[in-house]
Design brief:
Layout (H helix, E strand, L loop, with lengths): L6 E5 L4 H10 L4 E6 L10 E4 L11 H10 L2 E4 L10 H22 L3 E4 L15 H19 L4 E6 L1 E3 L12 H11 L4 E2 L6 E2 L1 E3 H13 L6 E4 L6 E2 H14 L8 E2 L2 H15 L2 H14 L23 H18 L13
Parallel strand pairs: 1-2, 1-4, 2-3, 4-5, 5-6, 6-11, 7-10, 8-13
Antiparallel strand pairs: 9-12
Helix pairs in contact: 1-6, 2-3, 3-4, 5-7, 7-10
Pfam families: NAD_binding_4 (PF07993)
GO molecular function: alcohol-forming very long-chain fatty acyl-CoA reductase activity
Protein name: Putative ketoreductase
Length: 346
C-alpha cells in the first residue's frame, strides 16, 4: 500500500496570511499555490500562475483536469484588499475568486476554506468616509452568500486585523494598522480619529494559520468561524499607551496625539483641512480617517476562538505582547532601532 500526502491548493500564498499558512501546512500537505502577479518563491511549495477572470483559472483544459484530479483541499486566502482600488475592481476580484474556486472544488470533490473578514459584522456606509472599505466589506458579504449557497462543503473564516507573529512580530507585509500605530510612535499624527474606549481588534498571523490547520486536519468541512480578539481586544487608550511606551524604548521624543471621536472630526476638523494642511498631509489624514472606521465601537466582535480551543492565545495580556512585538518589528524595518537593519517587510 502506498500513502499519498493530501494536496492543498492555496491562493494568496505571497501575502501575510498566505505565508503563515505555508509555515503551518507545508509539513503535512503538498501545498500548491496559485499566484497572480507576485511569485511565492518558497521551496516548500509548488506554484503556477493563474487568473480568476479566465476560464479554468487560465489553464489549458489538460492542466485544469490534472489540477482537479490532484487537489484534495482548497484554501482561498487571496483577495483585493487595497481600499484605494476602484470599488468595481474590488468586487470583481473578491467575487471572481470564490466563483472560480467553487467550480474547481466541484470538479475536484474538495472542500473550500474561504477567508472573509470579521468586519462584515458592522459594515461601513458607502456614503461615509470609507468608500473603499465599504466596497471591500460588501464584496466579502456577497462572496460569503455565494459560498454559503453552493453545494460544495465549505468553511467560512472571518479574521479581524492580522498582525505579526506572536513569537517575534515578523510578517510578510505591514497592514493599515501599522500605519496608524506607526504614526503614533513617530509623532506624525496630531490626532487619532477614534474614541478612547473603542476596541482595536487584531489577531496574530500564526494563530490564524493554526486555526486553519486544525480545521483542515480535523476535516471540518462546514461552519462559520470568527477569528477575533472579541472582548479581550485592547482599547484605543491601551494601544496609545503601548505605542508611547515603544516610542520611549526607541528613544523618540514623541508628543502623544489626542484621541478624538469621529463625529468631532466631522464637525470641527474636516472643515479646516483645506485651509490649514498641505495637500500631502490632507491625503494622509483622510487615509487615517478611512481606516479608523474599523475602530469606533466599544462593542466586541463575535469570537469563535474559545470554542475552537484557542482562548489562551487571545487574552488581553497576550495580545498586548503580540502588538508590542509587531510594532517593534515594524520599528526595526523602518530603521528606528539603533544598530538594526532588517528590511524584509514593506
Amino acid at each position: 500500500m502506498t500513502w499519498r500526502r493530501k494536496t492543498l491548493l492555496l491562493t494568496g500564498g505571497s501575502g501575510v496570511v498566505g505565508r503563515a499558512l505555508i509555515d503551518e501546512l507545508s509539513h503535512d500537505f503538498d501545498v500548491v499555490c496559485m499566484r497572480n502577479r507576485n511569485p511565492v518563491d518558497d521551496v516548500r511549495v509548488s506554484e503556477f500562475a493563474g487568473s480568476f477572470a479566465e476560464p479554468r483559472l487560465g489553464l489549458s483544459a489538460g492542466d485544469y483536469a490534472v489540477l482537479s484530479r490532484r487537489v484534495d483541499v482548497i484554501v482561498h486566502a487571496a483577495a483585493a484588499t487595497s481600499w484605494r482600488e476602484d470599488p468595481r475592481r474590488i468586487r470583481e476580484v473578491n467575487l471572481g475568486g470564490p466563483t472560480a474556486l467553487l467550480e474547481l472544488a466541484t470538479q475536484a470533490s474538495a472542500p473550500l476554506y474561504f477567508f472573509s473578514t470579521a468586519f462584515v459584522a458592522d459594515p461601513p456606509s458607502a456614503q461615509g468616509h470609507s468608500p473603499g472599505a465599504a466596497a471591500y466589506v460588501q464584496s466579502k458579504i456577497e462572496a460569503e452568500a455565494l459560498v454559503r449557497s453552493h453545494a460544495v462543503p465549505s468553511v467560512i473564516v472571518r479574521p479581524s486585523i492580522v498582525i505579526g507573529d506572536s513569537a517575534d512580530g515578523r510578517m510578510a507585509a505591514f497592514q493599515g494598522l501599522h500605519a496608524v500605530l506607526g504614526a503614533i510612535v513617530r509623532g506624525s499624527a496630531p490626532m487619532i480619529p477614534m474614541p478612547a474606549n473603542a476596541l482595536i481588534d487584531f489577531v496574530p498571523q500564526d494563530l490564524v494559520a493554526a486555526v486553519i490547520g486544525r480545521l483542515v486536519r480535523q476535516e471540518v468541512t462546514s461552519g462559520e468561524y470568527w477569528l477575533t480578539a472579541g472582548d479581550q481586544a485592547l482599547c484605543a487608550r491601551q494601544i496609545m499607551d503601548l505605542c508611547m511606551g515603544l516610542a520611549g524604548d526607541l528613544g523618540l521624543s514623541t508628543r502623544e496625539p489626542r484621541l478624538i471621536p469621529t463625529e468631532a472630526v466631522d464637525r470641527l476638523i474636516l472643515p479646516l483641512l483645506e485651509d490649514s494642511l498641505p495637500a500631502p498631509l490632507q491625503a494622509k489624514f483622510r487615509d487615517l480617517l478611512e481606516f479608523a472606521w474599523l475602530f469606533q465601537s466599544a462593542d466586541p466582535l463575535p469570537n469563535s476562538l474559545p470554542e475552537l480551543g484557542f482562548a489562551a492565545q487571545v487574552t488581553t495580556e497576550e495580545l498586548r505582547k503580540t502588538a508590542y512585538l509587531s510594532m517593534r518589528y515594524w520599528a526595526q524595518v523602518k530603521g528606528l532601532v539603533a544598530g538594526d537593519d532588517d528590511g524584509r517587510a514593506a
